[in-house]
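Archive maintenance. Older records in this collection stored only the sequence; we are now back-filling the structure field for every entry so that each record is complete. The fields below show one back-filled record exactly as it appears after the update. Entries are processed alphabetically, and Transcription factor MYB61-like is next in the queue.

ARCHIVE ENTRY
Title: Transcription factor MYB61-like
Organism field: Dioscorea cayennensis subsp. rotundata
Length field: 151
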Amino acid sequence: MGRHSCCYKQKLRKGLWSPEEDEKLMKHITKYGHGCWSSVPKLAGLQRCGKSCRLRWINYLRPDLKRGTFSDQEENLIIELHAVLGNRWSQIAAQLPGRTDNEIKNLWNSCIKKKLRQRGIDPVTHKPLSETETQTDAREDGCKGHRRRRR
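Back-filled structure field:
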């Protein structure tokens, strides 16, 4: 992932956000809302691009943002929603107020998939692993048998 061309045209700040920048962004959005993200940096007095402001607000500064570990209920809801929606993280996040799609995706890939496998559940199909492995083996055996007959 590279920077957008708008970041090169102007002399915009990159990297870590300072507490002063966070304060400017919070004050602006609290008072006026975000509107068009590309106009927010200029209106808020920031030397950042709109995308940077949007991501900072959504992932770190929103007042309704939940921090910390996920509860067992949240994890179970993520598993249930994943079984229905698949990897549609933003749709799953919409059902978990205060959680971002990115942190849900990271939790899924770092923890929940492993937990499901340990319980004997395939994290892709949400079926028992033995059933999934049997179906996969049958498909593979069928293909191998077919190849053998043709030789």
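Update note: The two ends are 48 Å apart (CA to CA). Residues 37 and 96 are 24 Å apart (CA to CA).
Entry marked complete.
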